[in-house]
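May I ask for a sample protein chain and its fold as tokens?
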Amino acid sequence: MRETEVDLGGHPGLLVRPTTARWFYLLAHGAGAGMRHAFMTDIAEALADRGVATLRWEFPFMAAGKPRTDTKAVAERAVREVWTASAKHAGALPRFAGGKSFGGRMTSGAHAAEPLAELCGIAFLGFPLHPPEKPGIERAEHLAAANGPLLFLQGSRDDLADLELLRPVVTKLGGRAKLVVIDEADHGFDVLVRSGRTRAEVIQQLAFLIAKWMEQKAAKASKPARPKPSKPKTARTKSRSRS
């Protein structure tokens, strides 16, 4: 897999664009590891095999080597700056955004506060609904204002997203939102040996689901809206049109 280092308005990025690319995914990292983490590299490679170009990038705190995440304002501003800068790398490909945990949440927060132009949808790789052992849904309150398709890929053992809380949140968002539960996976999409599955198999499943969703949403977005049929003129309207 060939990675190209790019500058995104002062933010570092890694572009993977296969010759077969059909869609473009701006992929942000989580709170604990940057764009070069094994998970980020593996999912980018798996997506490339399925025709998805990825542009991984780093938030200011990670690029500076700081242990604490950026404030919401700083992180969301970075999302908007990187989104704008990513356009030249995407070219004519339909553009999607999202990412792992913190990165996905900051992306949807930025889009809710100020819509990202030409965004086809947001794909979350483990939406962090709440801190560990502190169940709640406050972190999802902005999603109603994050217009467009939303894909939630969530591990069944994710301790940052109680499924009993997440399912109603996604249902409330209506048909534009989709939740897919990855059996036996935790927040990092690691699985137990006894599950009979491997991490590599989970990565492939994630890539398949994302690519399939992007294909559906991009096709729907490209279809021109059908004009509403005009109502037939009544005798009265005909007589008026002659006057």
Notes: The longest strand covers residues 119-125. Residues 199-222 form the longest helix (24 residues).
